[in-house]
Amino acid sequence: MSRTPDMLRALRHRNYRLWAGADFLSVAGTWMQVLGVNWLLLSISHSATSLGFGLFLQSLPTLLLAFAGGSLADRLPARPLVLTGQALHGLLALALAVIAFAGVQNVWPIYAVALLGGMVSALDGPALGRFGAEVVGPEDLSNGLALGSVISSGGRIIGMALAGALIPLTGTGTLFLLNGLSFAGVIAAVLCMRAGEMHPLPRARAAEVGITAGLRYISRTRWLLVLLGMAFVLGALGRNYQVTMAAMSEGPLAAGATGYGVLSVVFAVGAVLGGLYAASRPRLTFRILFAAALITSVGQAISGIVPGLLGFAVMLLPIAAAAVVLDTTVSTRAQLDTEPTMRGRVLAAQTMVGAASGAVGGPVLGMLCDTLGPREALVLAGVITTVVAFTAAVLLARSLGRTSPVAAAIVALRGPEGIRGIRGLRGVRRPSPAGPARRPAVSRSVRPGDAPRASRALPRPAVRRSARRIRPERALF
Question: Which residues form a coiled coil (predicted)?
Fold first, then answer.
């Protein structure tokens, strides 16, 4: 009997296979709609400003309502929320199809649909995240997330290609109609999943529900704050490559629209390679996270120096791959190392950070490109994100119990294999593969990556009510 390769181990789950197929269909349809909406707005208004305003309306609800969606996801069963959200998205896509086929020459109905779509996405996004975790289970969650990034990249490429082919032939209405039908496929896949093979997460108790409880939990989880802070800075200054690729193509590279298309394809290929690498790893640790952060940051600085279109494209490949690994690892650690009852609100915070980094980083990078030049902007942003990545490594390691900043940086960047050579440093011990040490431990709150410190003189104390119990195999640095 053939054994599923480790890179594809999440596909052993029947429910995940259904989820992956539905995800590919949905992503392809979504990108068809994205290009269709952009083209429809431009054809009606002949203004790039109207296009930007439509994108703003679609992303605004994420900043305002994502935490409310996270609270709902932690309180209610995930499957009904997912089905409701997909049905609403399908209806909105069909509404766009009606607008396009009717030949409406007014942007406001499109703006209204964009705003409503953003509201639905903000409210059902955390439920989708929780449901995805329940489909695959904690052991294969990181692999499922990595394969999901590959599926999303593939769906994006297919969706954009189909949109480019269909717009001249049938117009934008067909794109919206196909996207609406894709949500029917997602609903069918969810309904076909076997309840007995799900891995349900515990729902929040009465005292844990609400936005305030979620904010309180995140604010006192220092390592998570460090992670989200680093994700924001790197996302704002190091991940808005749609801006810098366009500026480089138009300016120093003198490659025009053709060069911009080539760079976009290279970036998409790098994203697929990054997803495959992440899927091949048995665990996505903090070591991998900071390695990916440094590759994207240093690579961005170097990309501002290398000459020619070919050199810039070569630098884009590892940057795109590392960016996907970084995103997947942040999502994995944020989900596995936090309370399951807070999963929806943690995912909401991560979504808000992503939306905020895009909203802030795009204009900032554009301004830097206009004032300093595209090359100088890349170098400056790369240096800043490199410093932030190193700082986050030290802060994260210290928040997990490492008291020496130098030792913290070494542990963060070298990982479990590097701990052997510095075991004499205080607070640095390698977690045992068999589980926590059996010796009594000093009372303290357990954090991701912590290993118990032995003390022969003290008996085992009662665990604090607020302490989290993280299994060592999930919390490797």
Answer: none
For residue range 386-401, list pLDDT tens digits in order.
Answer: 999 999 988 888 877 6
Q: Is the pLDDT of residue 297 over 90?
A: yes
Domain around 292: 209-418+442-477
Q: How far apart are CA 236 and CA 227, in angstroms?
A: 14
Helix (H) or strand (E) holding 370: helix 343-371
Last residue of a domain, one of 200, 225, 241: 200
> Is the pLDDT reported for residue 472 higher than 50?
no
Provide the 3-class DSSP secondary structure of residue 305: coil
Q: Quick one: pLDDT at residue 414?
A: 53
Residue 95 has pLDDT above 90, yes or no: yes
186 and 217: one domain? no
Is 163 inside any structural domain? Answer: yes
- Verify that 289 and 217 share a domain, yes or no: yes
Distance from chain centroid for Cα 59: 15
Position 283 in a domain: yes
Of 10, 12, 16, 9, nearest to 194 by C-alpha is: 16
CA distances from 375 to 85, 301, 302, 312, 419 (A): 42, 9, 9, 11, 39
| Residues contacting residue 196 through CB under 8 Å, at least 6 positions apart | none
How many domains does the chain divide into? 2
For residues 270 and 321, give the distance between their C-alpha atoms in angstroms, rounded to a whole number. Answer: 5
Considering the domain architecture, whether residues 176 and 32 belong to the same structural domain is answered as: yes
pLDDT of residue 401: 66
Q: Mark whether 364 and 400 lie in a shared domain.
A: yes
Whether the per-residue pLDDT at 424 is higher than 50: the answer is no
Same domain, 67 and 150: yes
pLDDT value, residue 113? 93
CA 215 to mean position of chain CA atoms: 20
CATH code, domain with 147: 1.20.1250.20
Residues in the chain: 477
Closest of 197, 213, 215 to residue 205, by C-alpha: 213
Residue 426 within a domain: no
Distance CA 273, CA 320 (A): 9
pLDDT in tens, 306-344: 988 899 999 999 998 999 899 888 888 888 888 888 888
Q: What is the mean pLDDT of the chain?
A: 78
Question: In sequence order, what are the residues at sequence separation of 6 or more whose Cβ sits closer than 8 angstroms to the Cβ of residue 111?
Answer: 53, 54, 57
Tell me the C-alpha distance between 260 and 326, whole Å. 24
Contact yes or no for 57/111 (Cβ under 8 A):
yes
**Which tokens is 433 given?**
């593969």
pTM for the model stands at 0.68
Cα 6 to Cα 71, 137, 363: the distances in Å are 34, 15, 41
Q: Are residues 183 and 257 in the same domain?
A: no
Domain ends where: 174, 200, 226?
200
